[in-house]
Amino acid sequence: MSFITRGFSGRSHERDERLPPGQTLVHDFPVLSAGPTPEIDTAEWEFSITTETGGVHSWNWQQFMALPIDEVDTDIHCVTHWSKLGTSWRGISLDTLFENVETQYDYVMAHSYGGYTTNLALDDLLDGKAWIAFEFDGEPLDPEHGGPARLLVPHLYFWKSAKWVRGLVMMGEDEPGFWEQNGYHLHGDPWKEERYW
Fold first, then answer.
1. pTM metric for this prediction
2. What is the pLDDT of residue 16?
3. What DSSP string runs through the chain?
4. Which domains are seen in the chain, by residue range?
């Protein structure tokens, strides 16, 4: 006769140091969205950065794909307590996109096809911290995961990595986006558990 109790598991289960506090490891890729999934044809896709002077820097899909492409291996963490470790992406660094952008502002509002918005500090997008990703795990990014292109800001909770991204608008002050207006934290650092206001 054998039995198992929670008190005697045979060995201790050490917590993975790559998991921020309150997170649970998953091996699939959960899909969470604030609304319906938009279908965006790359022939009609455009990404832009708008400065405080009204200057617009924009790229269509062909121009975007001609930019230097980064391979990104990173962990991702959702505010709903799941984390996926060792994910692989391809995308364009925000450092590349901001090369010729002149701004005195410290914040941006990310805008997505479908109307979603999220606010970010410019410091969270530059110096190798963020990308516009168009591939996941060696395949074009599925629409349900934000394809054809999404923001990827892996050091923040994943709601900051806006799906179906279409542009960034510079802001002088930090103003809340969609989820932030509904109680989510303005910054969203998973290591500090910045989930809610």
1. 0.89
2. 83
3. ----BTTB-SS--PPPTTSPTT-EE-SS-----SSPPP---TTT-EEEEE-TTS-EEEEEHHHHHTS--EEEEEEEE-TTSEEEEEEEEEEEEHHHHTTT------EEEEEETTS-EEEEEGGGTTTTT-EEEEEETTEEPPGGGTTT-EEE-TTS-GGGS-TTEEEEEEESS----HHHHTTB-SS--GGGT--B-
4. 24-30+43-192 (3.90.420.10)
